[in-house]
Structure formats: C-alpha cells, structure tokens
Design goal:
Helix content is about 50%, strand content about 15%. The protein has 21 helices and 22 strands. It has a nine-stranded mixed sheet with strand order 10-9-8-11-12-13-18-22-21, sandwiched between helices. The protein has a seven-stranded mixed sheet with strand order 3-4-2-1-5-6-7, sandwiched between helices. A two-stranded parallel sheet has the order 14-17. Helix 15 runs parallel beside helix 16. It is elongated and about 115 Å long. It starts with 7 loop residues before the first helix and ends in a 20-residue tail after the last helix. The relative contact order is 0.06.
C-alpha cells in the first residue's frame, strides 16, 4: 500500500500551536512550571477517583457518597502530589520521559494507594463509615497512574514525531538492529540538531526484514544495501553494528560511494556510555583493514594490575600513552608515567584526570640517564614495568644511528637492570617486527634490546622479563596513515615507496591490549609475537584512503625505498617457532639457536657500543652493533649508513 505523504507546509502548520505552547511553557519560571504540573496531577487524581466512583455505582451515586467522597479525593490528590514531589518526578524534563519516570510514578502511586486504603479501613473500623468504597480506592489509583504516565509521555511522543516529520532532513538508514543501532535511532529522534530522519534499519538477518523497531521498518539486509539506497532515496548510511565483518564494511562503503551516499560510523557502545553522548565519525581506514575485533581477558588483566604500582616508560608516545590509558582503567594502586617529553606527559595527565583517575605520577626524565632511572625506582618501587621508550622512525634513525643506539639499547639496559635491582615483579619490553632479520639501525637496536632483556632474566631471576613483538600501528606519530592523510589534505601527491611494499597493521588500542595480555601470561622469560592479521599492500592502503577522503584527483607518486626499508616485514625469523598461548592472538616464540643468558659478555659489548655512540663514532658503533646482532644486514643495503672517511 502506498504511503500518503502530507505536504511539509501542512505539517508545520499542524505542529506550530504545540511548539508555541511548549516554547512559552519552557520560558516560564521553574516554580511556575512545577506548580502547573502539580495542579494538573491533582486534577487527574480527583478525576480518576470520581470516574471510579461512577463506575462503582453505574452512574447512580447517592448524595451521601458524594459528600464523603470529595474530602477523600482532595486529600488523596494532595498525598499523590506530595509523594510525586518527594520521588523527584517534577524535576524531570517532559520530552525525555522514559521508563525511570514511570518507575518513580509507580512508586509514588503504590505508596499513596496503600496509605489511602489504610485510612479508608481505619475510618470504617473506628468511626463506622468509610469515605469511599475500597474498590474505588484501587481502581481510582490505577486510573490515576495510567493518566499520570500518559500525560508525561504525550509531549515526548509528539516532540519526536514532529522531529521525524518537519522539514527536509537527511534520509538515513541505520545498519544494525542491536542495542547500538536502536540507541542511535532513539538519540536521533530526540535531537533536532542532528537534522536526520531515520527511514529504516538494515539487518544482517533476513528474518528481521519487514519487522518494525520503534515504528521504523527493517527495510533489508546488508547484501541489499545498493537496492535500499535507490528505493528509499537515502542521503546517509550509518554503520552501527560492532559484529559487521570488515568485508561487509568495505562492501557497504563501496556501494555508498557508487551511489554518492554519505557513510558514517557510530563508535562502540562502551565509548558512548563513557562519554555520555553519541559522536558519529567518518569512516576511517582502520575500518577496512580486514582485522577482526580483539577479545581481551579483562579478568586476567585486572588480576595482575589491580592494586599494583606500575611504571610506563615513554608514556608520552603513541604506545606509551595508550598503555597508560588502559592500565588506569584496571585499578592500579599507582601509575608512574616517565618520559622526557614534558608536553606529552602534561596532556596525558590532564586526560587521565578528566577520566577521574587520580593515581598518576608524572615524571620528566630520560631512560638513558641511569641516575634518574634509579631515582624513579627508588622512590616508587614499581611492581610492573612496561618499557615503551624508544626511537621508532626507520629512515630518521638511519641518519641518527648513534642516538638510536643510546636510546634504544642503553635506555633499555638501564630500565631492565633497575627493574631487577629494585625487585620488580615483571618487566615487559615493547619490541617490533623490524627486529626480525633487521635491515636498519632501528630494527637492529630493538633486536639488541630483546637480547638485553633476555640477559637480564638470567641476572635477576626473581623478576619475570618478556618482550612483545608486533608490526606497524595505525595512527602513531610518523606512521603511514597520518602521513597519507596530510598529503591528501594538501592536494597530493601521495608518496608510496614501492608498488609491492607490504606491511602488517594493528590499531594502537588493539596492540596495547595484547601487550597487556602477553604481560599477564608471562611466567618466565619469553618473546611474544602478536597475531597481526593479513598483510596490507601500501599501494592499496593509499588508494583506499584517497577514496575515503573523497579526493579522486589526488595522484600517487612512487619515490623508491628509503634507507633501511624492506619490501616485506616479518614477525619471526628462521629457527624461531610460534607456539600457541592461552590467547588466540598471542604466540610465544621459541628459538632453536638461542644461547643461554650470560653465555657471552653482552653487557661489555653494549658498554663499548654506547661509549662509541656517545663520542659520535658512528662507524665504530655500527660495527659493534653488527657484532652483537649478527644477522643485521645493513652493509648489504643501498642507502645505509657507512663510516665516514678516517673512521675504523
């Protein structure tokens, strides 16, 4: 059956009187509005009892009943209004009336009914007459409750209907019929500023098609998005389903791009509850990378962090700051944040305070300063240490090799040694896939940091040492996604090093959650590697970002491999075997060729390397780095750092 559409001008004229009354009432003083509401409620109660009395006597009420009834009805009205006021009913906004308002009214009605019933029985037993038949008390109270709720629901229903109908609004379909999608629809109907009209839901279940949710139909399935867009004249599609696969998100996005329909994504419901509001965001490249959501054992995480003193180094960086956020939600007794970037620490501290976490200690300091590191451990005595302080930018570190050695190698040695010396329970080193068969200074220094951590596990057996190795993270400073975004916003070109460049990607929250998971399961020295999902071709990433950002004219330019870059990164090397753990996305690496800790004097080699690096003897320092990490192949790569003339 074809739906009859009422002209917009006629609808506006129909709702204009209601809107005028609503606006005038809203602009009146609060005391006036509460007084008016109390009078209306009192009239409803009196009317309800009068109707119940008429029904009791089938309309033929004798005069003596009316004489005793009116004092009873007026007293009942006063009692109802008093209890409604005590229950906070008059402090609510009518257009946001919901189930809790109904519960408050039910509570007040129940108490008032009980008191009136007791009074009616008492009058009968003591004075020999009753003000009203007892059936009138019960039926009148029920009628009063229904009308008290209805009079509050009517403004909300009318308000939402007026928002759905008045004016030209974005015709929108919501993908998702679960809690998240329904919450979004309710928010849209109550918010005029969103300028959105929900015309239907899209479900992943064919059985739901044709059903209605809050009066809005389920118009089709995800596979039918293209037909839904055409049939309903959509302007916008909002993805509000956490269970949608990345392939489905990709198909929805491409269909909407072809149909010139805007696509937005609703954040996770947990984020909605945390922020108290819904902020739709544009589709991001992270939504299309083919990674499934990470399941985290929160009980295990809170079990080993709750009540503990925790130190995070490099806390102002991308990984360190997210570690700090997630740890703060797991109930640590104290969270010590160490970084030499005072601005990063300052902003992170403010963010944690806004999240009502007051247990953060901000410490400005450098992990390459052993005195400062010792002071931090002496003062705070951390139980758990997460070492995220490192230089990570590959081409930059090729040009600044001595700084990479001092920070990544000597800094790790300082913190790992202090963790054991001051009796920390666990030390977790954040490593990288570039430590596997390293082809650059950054990767070689991170591989050596893994070796140092293993060495410390033999020196300090009471402390559990572990390293966690993973690939690229999306959105970190200097990573490819923000770089591409800046280039696209500037009009291009987007610079890609090589058409066959392959990388693994993971979002920062995912990576940090799995780092914490690996730390929870570590019970002795181990190197863990995270499941990074399928590899992503950087050229495809660039093309998708250009499409998502709506910049089809932006060109892609190939610039060649930069110093130290490989076409394809690896997560393990020859002789390393991945063993499963309790978590399906965390693996433990076992090496066939690894010598026991303390078998070689690694610390002397590190001391010599750091000495050369501090004296800016780049060539000597790199040669020592190659001795420490034999499979470091910098010498075979074009563009790698070579000793200056005269250096040994």
């Amino acid at each position: 059956m074809r739906r009859i559409r009422i002209p917009g001008a006629l609808r506006e004229r129909a709702v204009r009187p209601f809107l005028w009354v609503q606006r005038s009432f809203r602009q009146s003083p609060p005391a006036f509005r509460r007084g008016a509401a109390m009078l209306v409620d009192a009239a409803i109660v009196v009317e309800s009892f009068a109707v119940a009395l008429l029904f009791r006597f089938e309309g033929d009420v004798q005069w003596e009943f009316w004489v005793s009834f009116w004092p009873f009805a007026l007293a009942g009205a006063a009692l109802f209004v008093l209890l409604l006021h005590i229950n906070g009913v008059y402090r609510s906004i009518l257009r946001y009336t919901g189930i809790y308002q109904g519960v408050r009214i039910a509570s007040a009605t129940s108490i008032a009914t009980g008191l009136l019933f007791i009074a009616d029985v008492t009058f009968d037993e003591v004075l020999g007459y009753y003000p009203a038949p007892r059936s009138v008390v019960l039926v009148g109270a029920l009628l009063a409750y229904v009308q008290l709720v209805a009079v509050r629901l009517y403004p909300r229903v009318f308000y939402e209907l007026s928002l759905r109908e008045v004016g030209r609004r974005k015709r929108t379909a919501i993908v998702g019929t679960g809690e998240q999608g329904v919450a979004l629809a309710g928010h849209i109907w109550r918010t005029a500023a969103m300028n959105t009209q929900v015309v239907g839901f899209v479900s992943d279940s064919p059985e739901e098609v044709g059903n209605h949710i809050e009066g809005v139909p389920v118009v089709g399935t995800i596979e039918e998005i293209e037909e839904i867009v055409a049939d309903h004249g959509l302007d916008q599609v909002i993805i509000a389903t956490p269970q949608a696969s990345r392939e489905q998100v990709d198909r929805i996005w491409r269909t909407c791009v072809r149909s010139r329909v805007e696509v937005k994504v609703m954040p996770d419901l947990g984020e909605l509850l945390a922020e108290g509001t819904i902020r739709l965001r544009e589709l991001q490249i992270e939504d299309l990378l083919g990674r499934e959501p990470v399941d985290i054992d929160l009980e295990a995480l809170s079990g080993y962090i709750n009540g503990k003193r925790v130190l995070v180094t490099g806390a102002g960086g991308s990984i360190g700051s997210e570690l700090s956020r997630q740890i703060s939600r797991l109930g640590p007794a104290q969270l010590v944040l160490l970084d030499r970037d005072e601005s990063g620490l300052y902003y992170l501290g403010g963010e944690l305070r806004r999240e009502e976490f007051d247990g953060a200690e901000l410490v400005v300091g450098d992990v390459t300063n052993p005195e400062r590191v010792g002071y931090v451990f002496e003062r705070f005595r951390p139980h758990l240490v997460f070492h995220a302080a490192a230089y990570k930018h590959v081409p930059m570190m090729e040009l600044q090799a001595t700084e990479a050695i001092i920070n990544n190698v000597y800094g790790t040695l300082n913190v790992a040694r202090a963790a054991g010396a001051y009796g920390a329970e666990k030390f977790v080193n954040v490593s990288t896939d570039k430590a596997v068969n390293p082809a650059n200074v950054m990767g070689a220094t991170k591989r050596l940091s893994e070796m140092i951590v293993r060495e410390m596990s033999g020196v300090y057996p009471e402390t559990v040492y572990a390293s966690v190795r993973f690939g690229n993270v999306l959105g970190s400073r200097g990573s490819v996604v923000p770089t591409f975004r800046q280039q696209i916003e500037a009009g291009g070109p987007v610079t890609v090093t090589h058409p066959e460049m392959i990388r693994y990607f993971m979002t920062i929250p995912e990576a940090v959650s799995l780092i914490l998971q690996a730390g929870a399961m570590a019970d002795g020295y181990a190197t863990y590697v995270l499941e990074m999902g399928r590899p992503v071709r950087i050229l495809d990433l660039a093309r998708n970002m250009i499409e998502i950002m709506g910049a089809p004219d932006v060109q892609i330019k190939f610039v060649g491999l930069r110093p130290g870059e490989k076409l394809r990164e690896e997560l393990s090397e020859e002789g390393e075997h991945r063993l499963p753990t309790e978590h399906p996305m965390v693996y433990r690496l076992v090496s066939e060729n690894e010598t026991p800790p303390g078998g070689a004097d690694l610390q002397e080699l590190v001391d010599a390397m750091v000495y050369e690096a501090r004296n800016q003897e780049t060539g000597r320092a790199i040669r020592l780095l190659q001795r420490a990490v034999p499979n470091y192949s910098a010498a075979d790569l074009p563009g790698s750092v070579t000793p200056r003339e005269g250096e040994a």
